[in-house]
Design goal:
This is ArsR family transcriptional regulator. Keywords: DNA-binding, Transcription, Transcription regulation. By secondary structure, the protein is of the alpha+beta class. The chain has a single domain, classed as Arc Repressor Mutant, subunit A (Orthogonal Bundle). Helices cover 49% and strands 13% of the residues. Strand 2 and strand 3 form a beta hairpin.
Length: 106
């Protein structure tokens, strides 16, 4: 099995991060991982009935943008946010985005 691509910290771009977070499903995944690190893909899914292929694509986009790290654990992947790397590149950006994009209670 091929190893997953994770960009070096210096290769994380603002455009890549903003693009990855522009999708509501990916934003929900990041929010779930912020609340509970080391979630499997299915547990971080924004909706339980999301197709596995769609979910895999969302995780690939987030991983390739440098937002998360995925590691194989048995038959699943555990995922966590690369908070230190993101703060090193763009201090406070992820928190600002997540705070500005808080789901409304209405």
């Amino acid at each position: 099995m091929r190893p997953l691509f994770h960009p070096d910290t210096e290769a994380i771009t603002l455009q890549g991060v903003l693009h990855a977070l522009s999708d509501p499903a990916r934003l929900a995944i990041v929010r779930a991982l912020r609340e509970s690190p080391d979630l499997s893909c299915s547990k971080a899914a924004p909706v339980p009935e999301m197709a596995k292929s769609t979910l895999s694509n969302h995780f690939r986009i987030l991983r390739e943008a440098g937002l998360l790290c995925s590691r194989r654990e048995g038959t699943q992947y555990a995922n966590c946010l690369r908070l230190d790397d993101l703060d090193a590149r763009f201090p406070g950006l992820l928190d600002a985005i997540l705070n500005a994009a808080e789901p409304s209670d209405s």
